[in-house]
Amino acid sequence: MKSYSMQKVRSLRGEISVPGDKSISHRSIMLGSIANGVTRVTGFLRGEDALATLGAFRAMGVQIDDDGSNVTIHGKGLRGLVEPTDVLDCGNSGTSMRLLSGLLAGQNFFSVLTGDQYLRNRPMKRVVAPLTKMGGRILGRAGGEKAPLAIVGSRLTGIHYDSPVSSAQVKSAIMLAGLYADGETVVREPHLSRDHSERMLRHFGATVETFDGGVKVCGGTELSARDIAVPGDISSAAFFLVAALIVPHADLLIRGVGVNPTRTGIIDILQAMGGRVTLENLREESGEPVADLHVLGSCMKGVEISGELVPRAIDEFPVICVAAAMAEGKTVVRGAEELRVKETDRIAAMATNLRQAGVEVIEHPDGMEIVGRGALSGCTVDSFGDHRIAMSMLIAGLVASGETTVNDVDCIATSFPGFFDLLQGVISR
Ligand SMILES: O=C(O)C1=C[C@@H](OP(=O)(O)O)[C@@H](O)[C@H](O)C1
Ligand SMILES: C=C(OP(=O)(O)O)C(=O)O
């Protein structure tokens, strides 16, 4: 297992672009594969998670070419996938496993989904239960809670489902199953989660109706291939946003970042903390808003985060914790119990690691309190096998005294290939 050590930096400046959005990359392969015609994807994220999705569709008979620039998907239509001859390995990717569960539940073949030690420990009943209500037949370990999941493709019927969690993976799994179901499928959620599936389905010509609190899809409609330009991932940009805010006098421009309002909680939170982040050159590509983000070193203060902001910033909490530790005053996060069921328990992991860096952290079942002290001490910490914990602690290392070592950093490749080079390119010591 590789470790990486970071020393305190003197400054951070430059112009960068971050790799493509992970959520949109997964969905481009899924919808491109079941559409009629050829879908060309630019900006596809070649991280392990999205590549796991790509591998799964190749294993179901879809021709997907990658010339290093464009990914070209030769769509097979709604009913064109074929039974895979082996289990489908989703690696570390919850998005692959949960969305695939929905898509596979309505096929006319058998399939098995598995993943790495972290993914096999994450909750799957949240998709298995509603898919079973639709007529899906899915078995898994621990009574269907854990992968491997064995899926016997079945005839599905649309349902009206009130999801207890604000989760785009749950919502998307049910919507994808809904494409194969008789009648209409409606999903409601407590707060709006990312809506990339809704947007991309519409881009591919599906009838998708969104209303306050939910979404409706109708089964049986064929999709038409459409080209997709994947914007930069705001969840990857988040590490650079926080880096530039906490390094004194930093000045950074991040070009071409997806700024879908269901994903911009990080910007709202950092601005509320006093962070100088501005959106420039706002435009739209493939049905998704995109902008350049300009960020300047800032003095920040603690804030309270809860409610609808939580799903809008769900993957950014580890690095928000670093911003909070460098701010003045207390930051309180509540209503974020979902953080406990990500690649690792992100509340426990960040509490443990920030305490190592000298920060006072109080844990709650659904969140945490971080007492900002505007300074961090160098330390040695673990990634807990979680890419976002690894990158967050390396960002902390930019401003910590002495040296910060993060153990087990290979996981960064799941979402952010090129992270180290990009960071090295903007810092100076
Ligand atoms: O649908 C998606 O692409 C994702 C949804 C979120 O998960 P949940 O739906 O579990 O909140 C997020 O954490 C994950 O990184 C990607
Ligand atoms: C939670 C994440 O992804 P997934 O659920 O797809 O593993 C993430 O990327 O932070």
From TrEMBL:
Phosphoenolpyruvate binds at residues 22, 94, 122, 169, 346, 388. It is found in: Cytoplasm. Pathway: Metabolic intermediate biosynthesis; chorismate biosynthesis; chorismate from D-erythrose 4-phosphate and phosphoenolpyruvate: step 6/7. GO terms for cellular component: cytoplasm. Keywords: Amino-acid biosynthesis, Aromatic amino acid biosynthesis, Cytoplasm, Transferase. SUPFAM superfamilies: EPT/RTPC-like (SSF55205). The active site is at 315 (proton acceptor). One of its GO terms (biological process) is aromatic amino acid family biosynthetic process. It comes from the Bacteria. The keyword rRNA processing does not apply. Its EC number is 2.5.1.19. 3-phosphoshikimate binds at residues 22-23, 27, 167, 169, 315, 342. The keyword Amino-acid biosynthesis applies. CDD domains: EPSP_synthase. InterPro entries: Enolpyruvate_Tfrase_dom, Enolpyruvate_Tfrase_sf, EPSP_synthase, EPSP_synthase_CS, RNA3'P_cycl/enolpyr_Trfase_a/b. GO terms for molecular function: 3-phosphoshikimate 1-carboxyvinyltransferase activity. It catalyses: 3-phosphoshikimate + phosphoenolpyruvate = 5-O-(1-carboxyvinyl)-3-phosphoshikimate + phosphate. Pfam families: EPSP_synthase. Its main location: cytoplasm. Residues 7-422 form the Enolpyruvate transferase domain. Catalyzes the transfer of the enolpyruvyl moiety of phosphoenolpyruvate (PEP) to the 5-hydroxyl of shikimate-3-phosphate (S3P) to produce enolpyruvyl shikimate-3-phosphate and inorganic phosphate. Belongs to the EPSP synthase family. This is 3-phosphoshikimate 1-carboxyvinyltransferase. It comes from Geomesophilobacter sediminis.
